[in-house]
Inverse folding.
């Protein structure tokens, strides 16, 4: 299963993934002032 969270500009700010044959994880995305992707942070949950 995957679930997404979006900000007010409709950019993905987080992704949570879990299920069979998948490592449960959360991925957070950060953007700069120009809406360019600047950071990705992956955390096992």
């Amino acid at each position: 299963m995957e679930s997404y969270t979006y900000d007010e500009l409709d950019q993905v700010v987080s992704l949570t993934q879990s299920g069979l044959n998948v490592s449960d994880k959360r991925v957070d995305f950060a953007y700069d002032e120009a809406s360019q992707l600047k950071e990705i942070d992956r955390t096992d949950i």
Observations:
- The mean pLDDT is 96.
